[in-house]
Design a protein that fits this description.
The relative contact order is 0.12. The protein has 143 residues and is α+β, with helices and mostly antiparallel strands. It has helices at residues 2-28, 36-46, 55-61, 66-78, 100-122, 127-142; strands spanning 52-54, 82-87, 90-98. The protein is built from six helices and three strands, in the order H-H-E-H-H-E-E-H-H. The chain has one domain: Winged helix-like DNA-binding domain superfamily/Winged helix DNA-binding domain (Arc Repressor Mutant, subunit A). Helices cover 68% and strands 13% of the residues. A hairpin with a 2-residue loop joins strand 2 (82-87) and strand 3 (90-98). A three-stranded antiparallel beta sheet has the order 1-3-2.
C-alpha cells in the first residue's frame, strides 16, 4: 500500500509542477504569429528528417486530439508554414512538411521560448537535478 501511495504522491507532484510551469510559459509565450499549439507541431516537425512527418505520426507526438491537429495543420498550410501531400508509400496517408518560412518563424519563437524555459527551470533546479528530471521523465514515458 505504501508503494501505491508514494506513486500517487509522485504523480500528483509531477502533474502539478507541469501545470504550474505550463501556465507560466503560456503567459510568457512570444507573440510572433504562432500559438503554443502551433509551436508544438512545428517543434515536432523540426526534429524530423527533412522537417517532414506523416500526419498520423504527428498525431501521436503532440498533445492535441486528431481532429484538432488536422485543423491546426490546415491553418499552418493556409499561412504557408507547412505543406501537405499524399504519402507515396501509403495512398491513404498524408505527409506534412515544414516550409522554409515556417522554419524561420519557428526558430524566432524557439529562441525566445527556450530562454523563458531555461530561466524558469534553471532557477528552480541545479544542472544535476535537471539531468535527473530529464532521465526520470524519459524513463516514465518509456514505461
Amino acid at each position: 500500500m505504501e508503494d501505491r501511495r508514494l506513486a500517487v504522491t509522485a504523480w500528483e507532484a509531477l502533474f502539478r509542477a507541469q501545470v504550474d510551469v505550463m501556465r507560466h510559459l503560456s503567459h510568457e509565450f512570444p507573440n510572433q504569429g504562432i500559438s503554443l499549439n502551433e509551436y508544438d507541431v512545428l517543434l515536432t516537425m523540426s526534429r524530423e528528417p527533412d522537417r517532414r512527418i506523416r500526419l498520423r505520426d504527428l498525431n501521436t507526438q503532440v498533445l492535441l486530439s486528431q481532429p484538432s491537429i488536422s485543423r491546426l495543420v490546415d491553418r499552418l498550410v493556409a499561412r504557408g508554414f507547412v505543406g501537405k501531400c499524399p504519402d507515396p508509400d501509403d495512398g491513404r496517408g498524408t505527409l506534412v512538411r515544414m516550409t522554409d518560412e515556417g522554419y524561420s518563424v519557428f526558430r524566432k519563437v524557439a529562441v525566445q521560448h527556450g530562454a523563458s524555459i531555461a530561466e524558469r527551470v534553471s532557477t528552480a533546479l541545479s544542472p544535476e537535478e535537471m539531468s535527473t528530471l530529464a532521465a526520470l521523465s524519459n524513463k516514465l514515458r518509456g514505461s
